[in-house]
Q: What sequence folds into this?
């Protein structure tokens, strides 16, 4: 009985650990998409933030400086995305792809030049990392709680505040918002900046919370899994959290099931479990598990009539 | 008189629209690259010189430049064909991977029995078929179930990667091998290297990874050009990209056209597998698409979705890839990923921020006119 309990506890803890960056990223993406800006660049923002968090923490010795640097780095890319998509009405997917590729290259180029470790930052120790708050060994640093808190907060902002109402309007029908005398661009910029903030926290969690340092491509597709979670949650915060937890659980299981024979099934390929978030999202998108409807104006640049 | 309105959609002279604006965009990308190089503490002009010499300085480096350009041509064309249909295929990475699986499986199954003149066309067809099939699923989901092709092609990249790791580790691994790679292809399943082919007609060049797949890439350029601009299907495909309602009114089935465009796109991306596996590695290996699928977006944007432009852009990217490798070798503080940074910046400035210099150019032309 004790053993089962500790197994469940360990699985829960590792699920939460894996899900934390997904949750932060998904809430960030939610703001952006609700405001009508598609964000394929979550992955790149998170990667850039992870790099600058670890680099700053390693140089200054302070995890908090690392968190600040992560936010600044992610916000810089968020502003770039805003500039391209809102001010210059460029293609939002192209901009997101550019940000991903730019981050994948730039983190290694800068890392190799600054630390001469083939793109890695020096291993972080002590105060350079975020420490667990209550449960030593469970890795429950402050960003884990921030992620859990971000979900009700996101729900409240989007569903209950004036800003949230306007944000939803600007994602569904920007013309109406414009006609009401509000600035479509400023609302969308705020959405994009909120997204940058949360993606920055997710990146910081990866490199100075969950891991002790930055390694190349350490996001490994988690930005896209967060995107999948948004779709899976049908653009609502709580269901998106649920999706993140399911995907986190799958990941935790994949690690535990490596080489294990499940009775009745035989050996489950780890790769299948790893591909599950994507496959499940495809099934959802195919309309086999209900319908996921994106904000109507998502991906469409707003052109003010002259 | 009213001053000319400076807007993002305002007109420029045709030559400025076609040539000047794209050049300014690329120049901006390279200015930022130069700044990054300077931040790292390297003289950008010195780096540029090393890069050009590294890409074009010897017959070996030219060979590698052209070999990389072959891959970029395939993925650039793949992105462009989908673009013309108004579809954004970011699944080139996965389609290249699965295309490689297709040609690899064909070779592994038949190379002991078939001669090269029969084996190679069959394997190329298999690459096209598998690449097309991998693109067909997102296409079907878009055409019949209305799910967005950008999201589904991204998801399929990851599924392809997981599938390949599973197959290589568990099924296709050569017996006794420690690394996940298949057995070596028999000679009939290899595409001749360019230096061997040239040797046969009496020309000696340094050995490189360049192989006859580059002829397939050139043929694809011509075929895509003929298809898009000189066949009724190409016309219908481009009509769908410009104005889907007009296409429907003209009797085009958007569903079938989506399938056609994506399958062609996937087949073109699949040819990366031909160049990499049959031309160079001579076995199935992991991770051979190495970002070519994503770089294809930059190639297509820079080449303005025209086969000629794509061939030229692919040459530039090939030179960057090869020159960048040499540069990284010469200057230890610069890594090969510098090329990835350049790709990202070109996608940014030629794609997402394409309108950025437009107001500047409008001011310039307005001033000259008055």
A:
């Amino acid at each position: 009985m004790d053993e089962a309990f500790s197994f469940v506890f360990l699985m829960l803890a590792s699920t939460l650990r894996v899900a934390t960056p997904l949750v932060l990223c998904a809430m960030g993406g939610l703001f952006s998409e609700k405001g009508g800006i598609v964000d394929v660049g979550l992955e790149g923002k998170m990667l850039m933030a992870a790099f600058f968090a670890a680099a700053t923490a390693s140089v200054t010795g302070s995890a908090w400086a690392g968190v600040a640097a992560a936010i600044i780095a992610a916000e810089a890319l968020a502003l770039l995305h805003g500039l391209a998509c809102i001010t210059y009405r460029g293609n939002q997917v192209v901009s997101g792809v550019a940000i991903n590729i730019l981050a994948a290259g730039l983190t290694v180029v800068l890392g190799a030049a600054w630390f001469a470790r083939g793109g890695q930052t020096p291993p972080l120790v002590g105060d350079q990392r975020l420490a667990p708050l209550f449960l030593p060994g469970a890795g429950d640093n402050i960003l884990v709680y921030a992620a859990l808190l971000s979900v009700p907060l996101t729900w409240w902002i989007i569903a209950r505040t004036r800003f949230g109402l306007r944000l939803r309007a600007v994602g569904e029908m920007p013309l109406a918002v414009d006609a009401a005398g509000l600035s479509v661009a400023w609302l969308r910029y705020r959405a994009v900046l909120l997204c940058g903030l949360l993606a920055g926290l997710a990146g910081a969690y990866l490199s100075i919370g969950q891991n002790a340092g930055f390694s190349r491509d350490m996001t490994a597709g988690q930005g896209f899994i967060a995107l999948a979670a948004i779709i899976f949650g049908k653009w609502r915060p709580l269901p998106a959290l649920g999706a993140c937890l399911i995907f986190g659980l799958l990941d935790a299981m994949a690690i535990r099931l490596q080489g294990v024979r499940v009775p009745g099934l035989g050996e489950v390929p780890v790769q299948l479990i790893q591909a599950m978030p994507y496959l499940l999202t495809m099934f959802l998108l195919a309309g086999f598990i209900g319908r996921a409807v994106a904000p109507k104006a998502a991906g469409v640049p707003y052109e003010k009539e002259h | 008189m009213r001053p000319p309105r400076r807007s993002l959609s305002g007109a420029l002279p045709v030559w400025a629209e076609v040539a000047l604006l794209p050049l300014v965009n690329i120049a901006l990308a390279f200015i930022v690259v130069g700044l990054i190089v300077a931040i790292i503490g390297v003289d950008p002009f010195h780096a540029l010189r090393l890069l050009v010499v590294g890409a074009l300085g010897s017959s070996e480096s030219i060979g590698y430049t052209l070999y990389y350009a072959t891959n970029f041509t395939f993925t650039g064309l793949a992105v462009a064909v989908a673009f013309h249909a108004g579809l954004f295929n970011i699944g080139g990475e996965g389609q290249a991977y699965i295309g490689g699986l297709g040609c690899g499986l064909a070779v592994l199954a038949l190379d002991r029995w078939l001669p090269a003149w029969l084996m190679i066309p069959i394997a190329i067809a298999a690459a096209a078929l598998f690449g097309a099939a991998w693109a067909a699923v997102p296409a079907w989901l878009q055409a019949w179930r209305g799910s967005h092709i950008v999201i589904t092609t991204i998801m399929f990249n990851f599924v392809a990667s997981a599938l390949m790791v599973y197959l290589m580790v568990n099924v296709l691994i050569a017996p006794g091998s420690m690394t996940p790679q298949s057995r070596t292809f028999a000679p009939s399943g290899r595409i001749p290297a360019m230096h061997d082919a040239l040797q046969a007609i009496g020309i000696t060049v340094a050995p490189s990874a360049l192989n006859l797949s580059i002829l397939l890439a050139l043929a694809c350029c011509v075929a895509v050009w003929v298809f898009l601009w000189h066949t009724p299907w190409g016309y219908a495909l481009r009509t769908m990209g410009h104005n889907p309602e007009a296409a429907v009114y003209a009797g085009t089935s958007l569903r079938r056209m989506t399938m056609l465009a994506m399958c062609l796109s996937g087949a073109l991306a699949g040819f990366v597998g031909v160049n990499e596996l049959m031309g160079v590695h001579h076995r199935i290996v992991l991770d051979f698409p190495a970002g070519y699928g994503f770089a294809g977006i930059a190639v297509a944007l820079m080449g303005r979705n025209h086969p000629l432009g794509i061939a030229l852009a692919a040459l530039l990217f090939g030179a960057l890839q090869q020159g960048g490798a040499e540069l990284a070798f010469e200057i230890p503080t610069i890594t090969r990923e510098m090329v990835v940074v350049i790709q990202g910046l070109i996608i940014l400035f030629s794609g997402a921020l394409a309108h950025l210099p437009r107001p500047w150019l409008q001011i310039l032309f307005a001033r000259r006119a008055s």
Remarks:
- Confidence is low (pLDDT under 50) at residues 1-5 of chain B.
- The longest helix of chain B spans residues 116-145.
- Chain B touches chain A through 54 residues (CB under 8 Å).
- The domain at 60-369 of chain B is CATH 1.10.3470 (ABC transporter involved in vitamin B12 uptake, BtuC).
